[in-house]
Amino acid sequence: MKRALIVIDVQESFRALPSWERIANPKIADPVDRLVRLARAEGDQVIWVLHTEPGSGGVFDPEQGRIRLLEELERPAPGEPVLHKTAHNAFTTTRLQQLLTEAGVHELVVCGIRTEQCVETTARVGSDLGYGVVFVTDATTTHPIGALSAEAIVERTEAVLRDRFARIATVAELEAESGASTA
């Protein structure tokens, strides 16, 4: 089965938000980089997705200069697409599905910022489109919303996705399954 790693919204825009101070994992680049190295070692496609809100004047407006991967994150390799989206999921406003179809991809590994928002929504849409989805929880992060802690949000996301929309996995589990070295 051909796979693709979809890295969603691991971008400087989030670091510019006041809520970044409460993000559950400010070192999100570390587990994401491990997944990127694993995907490359396995010959999987890596696709980078960045959220944009053109004309908004906010941190997601391309005119503000923050629509770029987190500085400490692995850089895209030649041939790895970088898509810009304006919707919560990575499919609706990009050519993601076309790229996946052309590459013969049947399984998605998803990770990124806002566990319950763009990453979860991409997992759900991907599942609805017929892809097998692996949701790598420890390679996602979010921040508290209202009375819900980041941990409670992650727990809820895992519960609603598990066995219906996605297989829930950790980076270490995927590394162990592959046997590939990502160090």
UniProtKB/TrEMBL annotation:
Q: Which InterPro entries match?
A: Isochorismatase-like_dom, Isochorismatase-like_hydrls, Isochorismatase-like_sf
SUPFAM superfamilies, alphabetized: Isochorismatase-like hydrolases
Taken from the record, one Pfam family name reads Isochorismatase
Hydrolase as a keyword of this entry, yes or no, is yes
Residues covered by the Isochorismatase-like domain: 4-171
Keyword flag Mitochondrion: no
List keywords of the entry alphabetically: Hydrolase
Q: Which GO terms describe its molecular function?
A: hydrolase activity
Which PANTHER family has this protein been placed in?
A: ISOCHORISMATASE-LIKE DOMAIN-CONTAINING PROTEIN, PEROXYUREIDOACRYLATE/UREIDOACRYLATE AMIDOHYDROLASE-RELATED
What name does the UniProt record give this protein? Nicotinamidase-related amidase
